[in-house]
Design brief:
Blueprint lengths: L4 H18 L4 H11 L13 H16 L2 E2 L5 E18 L2 E2 L6 E3 L6 E10 L1 H4 L4 H10 L2 E5 L7 H13 L4 E6 L14 E6 L9 E23 L4 E11 L4 E3 L2 E3 L2 H20 L4 E8 L7 H8 L10 E7 L9 E4 L5 H14 L5 E4 L8 H5 L4 E6 L20 H17 L2
Parallel strand pairs: 5-6, 6-7, 7-8, 10-13, 10-14, 14-17, 15-16
Antiparallel strand pairs: 1-9, 2-3, 2-9, 4-8, 5-9, 9-13, 11-12, 15-17
């Protein structure tokens, strides 16, 4: 008898209660993975002290211990990228040393710079003037550090003047006030330097600044994706992918960006999925990939799609499930590409409606915001799931294990994704 997709879905959902009782991952072990990946020994899983490679070795060792087979001749899928790093970032105002990552950050594409200068503050009103670029030039010539105050991004005159200032003084050091100090990774290095101060801690009446910024631009930095798989029982040459990025921002001076939610949580989930499906092989081969250099612009996944392992041709990939920001869930989940691959999204929602795993599952369209993107651009059905909740720390040092404590929605999201993948194998 040939069953319709609706009948198959009903049978699969009906079996989930048995699965839930027979195996459940341990969120406390997942928390241990997060704690380990966010320890100081990993240097923020970035490029200073090869923190990303230390994390890759940890992931590889876990793949081996779980019993995953290597993606090709090795667990590593290697590539190179250019990347700018800021190993030294020291700033003092009026003799008081500021805290990197909290009081200030250095624009990620900055060059080295140092000096002892007087501060000169430029308000939005001053920046509206046609004379603003000339006044900045004069301030720089006299040895000041110009500080650009907060401004309305919709103020076209101010934006135009700031663009001209940046263009005309690209070798100079200029400061900006920011409402929030999120950081990122740059694959380029500019000729100048920008210091970004947090507006709420910056005293506009301060007089003097002392700073030492050392940037190190690394060409052809060696990195690697980490790949393992469980061979399918019936169609081993067809593949379903789990993935998540293991890299984060690394260090800026003495500040470490730990990336507990982004994305140590996704790697913990990846390892949980690997344990489950190694114990429960499916019809199709299940592939597990920890991508590198996501924070540098999806470089690891781009290189994978460009040059996949010979064992795993893209044309044989049936689905990609990317997990990023998996530490909350009290407000449900969002599926990027849910609007694009509607039938798959409907299946996921139907499972959730039946089992009550998450409060809601929202859908979004296409977005180049994580490692699913280049797979879907290559025509492969791909989801990016991220959990929603009250956790607000993103690209700041406070995204660390002290603030991220996994709750029951981690386990429930695991069961939701697991059940969906089982359905894809029917």
């Amino acid at each position: 008898m040939i069953l319709s997709k609706t009948h198959i879905l009903a049978l699969v959902i009906g079996s989930f209660g048995v699965l839930n009782n027979s195996w459940a991952q341990d969120r406390f072990t997942a928390q241990e993975h997060i704690n380990e990946l966010c320890s100081d020994a990993y240097f923020g899983r970035g490029y200073i002290n090869k923190g990303d490679s230390i994390a890759a070795a940890y992931l590889k060792q876990n793949f081996i211990e779980i019993g995953l087979l290597p993606g090709d001749s090795s667990y590593y899928h290697r590539f190179t990228l250019d990347v700018n790093t800021i190993p030294v970032a020291s700033v003092s105002i009026d003799g008081e040393e500021l805290s990197p990552g909290k009081d200030f950050v250095i624009s990620p594409g900055s060059n080295s710079s140092s000096g002892n200068k007087e501060l000169l503050f430029f308000s939005e009103k001053l920046l509206e003037s046609d004379k603003a670029p000339r006044k900045i030039k004069k301030a720089l010539r006299k040895g000041y550090l110009p500080v650009i105050g907060l401004y309305d991004k919709s103020n076209k005159k101010v934006v135009a003047n700031i663009n001209e200032i940046r263009k005309c003084h690209e070798k100079s050091t200029i400061a900006f006030l920011k409402e929030n100090l999120t950081w990122s990774v740059s694959r380029k290095q500019k000729r100048g330097c920008e210091i970004w101060f947090l507006d709420s801690v910056f005293n506009k009446f301060s007089k003097d600044v002392s700073f030492v910024i050392e940037a190190d631009f690394i060409k052809n930095y060696n990195s690697q994706n980490v790949i393992g798989y469980v061979e399918g029982t019936e169609q081993p040459d067809s593949f379903i992918f789990f993935c998540g990025h293991y890299d984060h921002l690394g260090k800026m001076g003495n500040a470490t960006y730990y990336g507990a939610n982004d994305n140590a949580s996704g790697i913990a989930m990846l390892l949980d999925m690997a344990i489950y499906f190694q114990q429960h092989p499916q019809k199709y081969t299940i592939v597990f990939v920890g991508f590198a250099a996501e924070e540098a612009g999806l470089i690891g996944s781009y290189n994978y799609v460009l040059n996949p392992p010979e064992r795993m041709p893209l044309k044989n990939t049936r689905f990609v499930f990317n997990m990023d920001l998996m530490g909350s869930g009290s407000k449900g989940a969002t599926i990027v590409n849910g609007n694009i691959f509607k039938s798959y999204y409907d299946d996921l929602v139907q499972i959730n409606d039946k089992e009550g795993y998450l409060p809601t599952i929202k859908s979004r369209g296409k977005a180049a915001n994580s490692d699913h993107y280049y797979f879907s651009e290559a025509g492969i059905p791909s989801f990016f799931i991220y959990l929603m909740g009250d956790y607000t720390f993103y690209h700041i040092p406070e995204d660390n294990p002290s603030n991220l404590k996994l709750g029951p929605y981690y386990e429930k999201s695991f069961m939701l994704i697991r059940d969906f993948i089982i359905l894809l194998n029917k």
